[in-house]
# Entry
Amino acid sequence: MSENISWRNIQEGDQFAFKTLFQSTYKKLVLTSIYYVENTEEAEDIVQNVFLNLWNKRNKLTIEGELIAYLTTAVRNQSLNVLEKRKTKKKYQEYLSFNSIDTNQYLSDPFFLEKLQNAIERLPEKCRLVFIKNRLEGMKNKEIAEELSISIKTVENQIGKALHLMRDALRDYLPLIAMAAFIK
Amino acid sequence: MLPIEELIIKYIENECTVVEKHQVEDWINQSDENRQKFDELRTIWLSAKVNSTDEETAWNTIEKQIISTTRPAFSFYKIAASILLIATIGLSYIYFNTDSQNYFPTISSTVIRSESDKKEVVLPDGSQVTLNKNSSIKYNGDFQSSRKIKLTGEAFFDVVRDESHPFIITTETINVKVLGTSFDIKAKPGKKASVHVKSGVVQVNNIIDRDSIQVVKNEQVVVSDNHLVKANMTNENAFAWKTGIITFNNDQFSEVVSTLEEVYDIEIELANPRLSQCVLTAKFENKSIKEVMTLLKEIYRFNVSYKNAKIIVNGNSC
# Structure
């Protein structure tokens, strides 16, 4: 984990240490970013930029405390910058910019993504298939409907059902984020 | 009203109608419990997508950029196998735009474009592409289950070997199938399509007459009158734009001019036709066109002038 990686090694140009840091924190940081920007590609770009900046500025940068804390803050700030520039924002996204809620409680659980994966695997057959095609393979509902010879309506139902079942399975692992009445 | 999960998904994905948007927001505002539920569903929905990301692929993208700041251009000769493809793609933009939906019936597509400079790209399967300026590649979906690419312009490919997923590059007139090798594709408008193989084996298919030819090391295929014609490789400067090394070996000036035009993407005019009889033996490494012209000027006592992005060479003879 990142705790074992010394900032000094990275400052000295140790690419292996840098790679280890990257690989052990990448998904977590993408999760952090996606919470704001709601788009995987953008989230990945943001995280990769943060790492590139970190590497390029390594000689000038003093990092106190844990690297993961620094990275999380940098990713969050960049995500908010991206959100700022958007023409259309949802109300809760504006809310996110102004309120520093701890969105990363669930991220402190290193097994969160594994639990999520398990929850996907335990979905009923058809539900799982449709969910994976939509969410992990990036197919459009229309394309899924055509491939499986079912209606788009059924595809949407199954995805909704999958999400419902996954929430039931994961509830205990999700933090209580009592969002304020942000949409008013 | 739809089940709330379905509505929330549409809401997050920006696919709601105005009415549905209000339904969701009203629902969220009804109670703390709803807000909590919204946040949980949203978190799961967004996080599920993260499971499809791959830190290994992401690292390759980063590594490329880190290395380029600490190491000079990558060595061409480290690559085990390579081919060069020159393909005509005069109408490729139109082709891409009209036919793409039918050609790849599923999933979103990714377009990567270079502008006034070369660009290095790492594909999701780890394969590396160097795009020459004003070029683009396009692929559909996640590139994992099917490795198909369309190209406009010119690119050098270093393909990760994966025999169960052949790597296929399509241009307007031909497609090239490789199992894992490095190769260079030139697909500029108005030029004859051709494939140059440095090493390894590549299969070239003619889209028009469905002819198919295997090309091996030091061979080339040219598309002439819509047919594939195989010959030994003659153009030793085929990779010059990528390597920065141009070699002339007793080459006539007409040949030299067309190579320089090709590599530097400029126009050169020999004001005196007799100059095309001149012969040159030289090796240029990472030289700008101005440096090349200055050297030629000194060797042959040419007059070199620059007019509107065109280089005019004048002189009596060699």
Remarks:
- Chain B has eight helices and 19 strands.
